[in-house]
Amino acid sequence: MLQNYFKIAWRNIVRNKAFSAINILGLALGMGCSLLIFLWIQDEVSVDNYHANGPQLYNVIHRQIYDNKTETGRFTPGVLPDELKRQFPEIVYAAGYTGWDADMTFTVGDKINKEMGHWAGADWFKMFSIPLLAGTPATALNSPTGMAISHKVADFYFGNPVAALGKSIRIDNKNDYQVTAVFENLPDNSSDKYDFLINWKDCLNRNPWMKEWGNNGPHTRIMVRPNANIANLDAKLKPFLRKYDKNVGRTFDAQLFLQAYPDGYLYSNFKNGQQDGGRIGYVRLFGIVAIFLLLIACINFMNLATARSVKRAREVGVRKVIGAGRALLAGQFIGEALLFTGLALVIALLLVFSLLPAFNSLTGKHISLQATQASFWLVLVGMALLTGLIAGSYPALFLSSLEPVRVLKGALTFGSGARMLRQGLVVFQFVLSMLLIVGTIVVYRQVHYVQTKNLGYERENLIYIPVEGELTAPSTYKMFKDELLRQPGISSVSSMQEAPTNIGSTTGGVSWPGKDPNVNVEITHTAVGYDLMKTLRIKLTGRDFSPEFSTDTTNYIINEASAKRIGYKDPVGQPITMWGKPGKIIGVMEDFHFQSLHIPISPLIFRLGVESDRQNFIIRTQPGQTTQALVSVETLWKQLNPKFPFAYRFADDEYQKLYKSESVVGSLANYFAFLAIFISCLGLFGLSAFTAEQRTKEIGVRKVLGASVGGIVGLLSKDFLKLVVIAIVISSPLAWYAMNQWLEGFAYKIDISWWIFALAGLLAVGIALVTVSFQSVKAALMNPVKSLRSD
């Protein structure tokens, strides 16, 4: 019997080639896209979930409440890890970790290269499942001059991990470190990215400010005992800092709480001191998109199968007369749906296999088909079964319910219920498609807005070059800067401790006459060199730092947000004190965006940097002469700083990195919206073809009676277009709400204008009209003699 059913199903597929092709292609596209999204979601969810001690690992989160604001993040005092381990028996291990990347120059013999790494506590390899190829977790980071390097670094400098152990590496041509361990290269699903780790004590020695409880910056990670009560530990951690920082509880409040380490990647955002999403939002978004695409493909199958049921009605009637039960018939049609789905799955796999390299390039992932894992095939089989059951359920129930007497008399007509269901499914399809179209337009406009917004400074033709090696010496620094200004194509040069795209250091150590001593005001700060306003082209009231004024070492430049918070009506010349150093405000710069547009512009203060503060040269080139300028800079670099590889960054590129996730989402939304419309139109095309076929004689009669081609096209098209218009009306408020929620994550954003919905609606109507009109025109141009010949 099963063999017979299979033959019947296959014959139906072959006999109705156009119908079958539309169904299989729609299902294949829906399943293929859903599978790609599933693989992406699987990769996102797997990040940081490979550690054996994962359930016992936690990030320590720091919540500061001051000046009517709450700031929350992973920034903690550098001395916190060891103290937590001493004070709380629930904590087995604790390790500090620098949240900022350290790009250092490694020298081994004649090999010189830049490597990126961090400093970490001695317990690091006891906490995390990072295989050691040489060395032990107990000794990997237990010496201030010891360091652990990756397999890749060991191979490059020493040939293999075993040969690297115990060898010396000179870093930044200053200090020698001994290789105490070699770890396996970090997997792609690790949120931590580094090729070396240096002992935490070395970090504290390099940065004395990290030894003070009032200063925050690095991360703290802990591992608790398996039976630890996290709620009790959280409660004890909350007031912990009050014992160590005398200002906590007086001018501001600071609290600690725990976040499960595996949650840190997906739930990185905080609002009002509480965890508030992050990348999990995109995981949920694309999960919904995958369901949308699969549903649209299933609805196509339902509609076409039900519409064409008149072709199978007599078959059903005959089978019922000779004894076939309803369950048996339903099973047959479900089986046919599963056969369609199986064929579609094969095509979907071929699509995924061919598109995966481009998908990885777009998303920055390294996803592969896990063909050797049983779980992968279980997911595929599950997807195929679910899709087949959803797609075949209604047609099977509808066809198996037909009454044989009416069918065999030729009295089969579609009731209003079946017709309304079919229309409802078409509306549902286009509601989902409209949501994707509107979402695509809004995401594109927001991404374009942040990419083109005036930041308050000119980031075009701006280059960052690290101040390192010989250039840290005052005389060489000045020589390099002076020589740069003589090079063709360079208009101005300055320096900054942090790049202008991401200034993150804050301080509560700023005061002024009239400031409430019981209120802590957190102000972002950084050190800068001479001529920065000219180099960044920031509008300034007052003057810039100048070597002509020796007192500028204790003077300051503030932004408009700082002036507003301080309350000075005319700030230039007014007194201000930072870290106990009294000075004056010599300039007020126009507010500019020094962080992501997700964050409002906050108070900012610039101080004149000393040698140790000079981290980046900021170089402005003449328009159209950047390449020439870079050649000149590299030549000069090799002359004055030969032991360090020349490296540079463009301000534009650094800015774009802030919105990488949004750019990826925008690109993916474009593709998925197109596919949703395409799949929907496949179904619309099939339905319009079937409708035209069913009304062939009616069209012939109308043409004989004088109906025009345009009139017939309008007659056949208006019912479908009516459904699309209903979908537009339903989807518009839903799309507005969804995109408004997404835009809430930006402090600076576009308005969702009415024309976005009008444009999306016109696109949907236009595409649907073209799809339906193709079949309508074909039917309208048919010779009525052929359609009426049998009557």
Automatic annotation (TrEMBL):
Cross-referenced PROSITE patterns: PROKAR_LIPOPROTEIN
Keywords, ordered alphabetically: Cell membrane, Membrane, Transmembrane, Transmembrane helix
InterPro entries: ABC3_permease_C, MacB_PCD, Macrolide_Exporter_MacB
Subcellular location: Cell membrane
Location of the ABC3 transporter permease C-terminal domain: 288-404, 672-784
Span of domain MacB-like periplasmic core: 20-238, 453-630
A Pfam family assignment: MacB_PCD
Protein name as annotated: ABC transporter permease
Signal peptide: none
Organism: Spirosoma flavum
TM helices/strands, residue ranges: 21-41, 282-306, 327-356, 376-399, 420-444, 671-692, 704-732, 752-774
Membrane topology: Multi-pass membrane protein
